[in-house]
Amino acid sequence: MENLIEIKNLTKKYGDLKAVDNISLSVEEGQLFGLLGPNGSGKTTMIKLMTGQLKPTEGNINVMGTDVLAHSVEVRELVGIIPEQETPPSFLTAEEYLHFVANIRKLDEIEARCNKWFDLLDFRNEKEVLCKDLSRGTRQKIMFAQAFIHEPKLAFIDEPLINLDPVIQKKVKDYLAEFVKNKGTIFLSTHVLQIAEEICTKIGIIYKGNIIHEGSIKELQEKNQHLEDFFLKLVKEKNK
Predict the structure, then answer these.
(1) In terms of residue numbers, what domain contains 92?
(2) Do 158 and 234 reside in the same domain of the chain?
C-alpha cells in the first residue's frame, strides 16, 4: 500500500510554545488512522498543517503525492475536511450550501449527490432551513456531507461524532468502515477513546506536541489491553 500521508520532522511554534514538536509519521492507503490526545495536545494543529490551513515552522508534509506547503489549495481540492468547530454559512439553507460546495468542486449530478446525503444522514426535512436556524447536530451532518460529496480518496476529520445522536453516530461509523473497506483513507483526531477503539485501524497518541505512541488497535487487542487503560497509563508516565 502506498502512503497517502507522509510527515517528516514537522514542527509548529507559537512563540516559545511548540504545539507540534518534530513529528514524523505516515498513513497508508486504506487506513483509518486516529490521532488521540488530551485537549491542547496538538491534534487540531496537526490537521490544519496537513491541509495547508497553517504553515509549519519546520518540516515537510506530503499528502497524496503533493507537497502541502507548496500546493495547499490543490491538496484541499483533493481531500475532504471536517473541522472541529467550523459551521456552514448562516445565510444559506442546507441545500444551498451543499449545492454551493458541489458547484465549487465542479461536480456533476449535483441533485443526486445532495439527496444521497440528505437521506443517509436523515435531514431531508431540514434541507430548506437556513443554517443559522439548524441544530448543532444537523449542522454537523452538513459538514460531514460537504466533506464527502466529491467522493475523495482521503478525508481529515476533527472529532467525527461531535453533536450527533446515537442513531446518526451509528450511520456515520458504518459509512466510515465501508469507506475504508473500499480503499478510502481517513485521518481523524479525537479525545474520545471509545470511538477510536471501535473504528480505528491504527492510532497515534500525541501529548504536548509529541507522538508518544504509534501502533495498531489489533496489537493492543492481542495483548488484551484496552485503549483507555493504555492511554491513561502512558500519559500519566509522560506527565511525571
Answers:
(1) 87-151
(2) yes
